[in-house]
Amino acid sequence: MTFTPIKSQREAIAQALHQCRDRSLALFEDLDFNTFCNQAHSEFSPVGWHLGHIAFTEGLWILEHLKGDSPLYPQYRKLFAADILPKEQRQNLPSKETILEYVHDIRRLVLDYLETAPIEEQSRLWWWLIQHECQHNETASLILQLQRLQHLPAYPVTPSTQNRKIVSEMVEIPAGEFLMGSNTNPQDNARPAHEVNLDTYWIDRYPVTCGQYREFIEAGGYQTRQWWSQAGWEWLQHNPVAKPLYWSENQAWDDHPVYGVSWYEAEAYANFVGKRLPTEAEWEKAARWNPVKEESTSYPWGEDAPNASHGNFDIRMGETTPVNAYPAGKSHYGVYDLLGNVWEWTASWFSPYPNFEYFPYRGYSEIYFDQQHRVLRGGSWATRPWALSSSWRNWYYPHLRQIFAGFRCAKDD
Q1: What is the pLDDT of residues 127-147, one digit of tens each?
Q2: pLDDT value at position 1?
Q3: Peptide bond preceding 354 in cis form (omega within 30 of 0)
Q4: CA–CA distances in Å: residue 133 to residues 17, 69, 354
Q5: 105 and 222 assigned to the same domain
Q6: Helices (DSSP H) in 239-289: which residue ranges?
């Protein structure tokens, strides 16, 4: 998310707050109380908890830290803080109506404060909070998808777009330096911008499709030890799966990206086709470096804010789309589908950039610099536009397959 000029910050923040909140509330509008409260998976809190947590975090940082108010609704601190209750203990929620009242009360006071806040000094934190709400929007979408998966196929019977055969091809990225990271992204783990030098490599023009992954399945990929690392094979023995979590046998989906795969599954497929997963630096250079102007851009296509022509995001479609459906979103190197559709696993462990400084608190990113989390890049069909950029870093345990994650492959020159 790039910042607007200082003179328009207050107006831009107010607009983003309203638009993002409208999208958040729409996610919860038709949920019954059981759906709202139940924990769909042990790794994730109930979907209703995320709504309360959004309000709690906004009140904590804006009303308490910036404005200096006493906590509003202090009885909710234990329930909605991110680091107190275990996820399985977050199911005992107030009614949806009660939480919505809490959400509206916090927001009313936040907007009142925004009118007089010293926004030039505070803008990074305001944008960070907007992105925080976007992240919990996406997690809520993921949880709702898991709940639907218990009752319905992961995909509709027929896709909403026409099937096109995707040719497996790679793009050469020449050796040289590029500027990685950002000095304007509110996320601490994306800062600071720094030069990285890479050797020549090749990267898939498109994410791996369901049709391509089907070849791995049909060749016995899940039963063949040679494609799996030691850690991956051990994971598979304890989790004897034979296809991605979000999978359809309907070949009409073959030009859509495969997703619902763990990092281990992505690694095994890459081995199967004689390639590897890209590092996050390789992914980012392919996604944002303009070799003609010798500069990094905020998005693959340049600096224009994301719109519906650039990719599949913001829950507009509610599902994946073909990997070549958005030519306007391709990068300067001609790589497609980098922002939106599905997150992409990379080979990299989540770690700090040189001269990292935490924000807004030490544990926000630092706790995950543990050599246990792999980096994902790009965003998914459920990512909000304010959390969409080529410098954004996501991270998860390599065994998780519930997230909207796929991948593309790379190889050395």
Answers
A1: 999 999 999 999 999 999 999
A2: 45
A3: no
A4: 9, 21, 27
A5: no
A6: 263-272, 280-288
